[in-house]
Write a structure and sequence with these properties.
- The chain has about 210 residues and is an all-alpha fold.
- Helices cover about 50% and strands about 0% of the residues.
- It has eight helices and no strands.
- The chain is globular, with a radius of gyration of 17 Å.
């Protein structure tokens, strides 16, 4: 999730989880808890939050029968800052370090391409923060991890059903290429999604684009 294309960095992060969960012994030098947290933070800064937020906006547009496109979703991301009030708000609306804010179109699209295999996981992480439900949905505990993965799977499924006309880039990877995880049957849950209505601010941004 933090290093979608770096297997060495992936292995180092997984080794800490193996040791703390008791799933298996770490086969390589593991990170400390502090270093692990910093890796997650840096991944958010590099673009995980951008990619997940953009995916959430596209799913919301499609769910409200608005034409889903990167340009329209980007408008919602870029034009509504710094005061972000719509229900599908990205992580930085609740914890507003400026580092999380997308700087421009190129920055967001570059992040989206980098984190494409895991954008649905970042969408689930952002979703877990929106209503203070990180303890219930976030990936930080064995109890909440199945919920986190269930929402990630729902975001991936919802995005894969969108009739996408983008020529230059994928919206999500095919289901057999995106990062997905097998959950034991007794722990597996399904979380259906319902798109939230567009807020007044979101409608204003979209209307301004139609009139331009």
């Amino acid at each position: 999730m933090c290093h979608p294309s770096d297997r060495v960095a992936q292995r180092k992060m997984v080794s800490l989880v193996e040791v703390q969960s008791g799933v298996g012994p770490a086969r390589r030098p593991r990170l400390t808890n502090d270093a692990f947290s910093k890796q997650v933070e840096r991944a958010g800064y590099r673009g995980g939050v951008h990619a997940g937020s953009l995916l959430l906006n596209i799913i919301q547009l499609a769910g409200n029968r608005e034409r889903p496109s990167f340009s329209r979703a980007l408008a919602l991301l870029l034009d509504a800052l710094p005061a972000w009030e719509q229900p599908v708000a990205p992580l930085w609306s609740l914890q507003p370090p400026s580092t999380y804010r997308p700087r421009n179109r190129a920055t967001v699209l570059r992040a989206f391409d980098t984190f494409l295999p895991v954008s649905h996981l970042w969408a689930s992480l952002i979703f877990s923060h929106q209503d203070g439900r990180y303890g219930e949905i976030g990936p930080a505990s064995n109890e909440s991890l199945p919920q986190f993965l269930a929402y990630a799977e729902s975001f991936l499924s919802a995005a894969s059903r969108i009739r996408w006309q983008g020529k230059d880039r994928h919206l999500v990877l095919p289901l057999d290429l995106a990062w997905r995880f097998k959950v034991p049957k007794d722990l597996k849950v399904i979380r259906p999604l319902h798109a939230l209505p567009l807020s007044a601010e979101q409608n204003r941004v979209l209307a301004s684009r139609r009139g331009s």
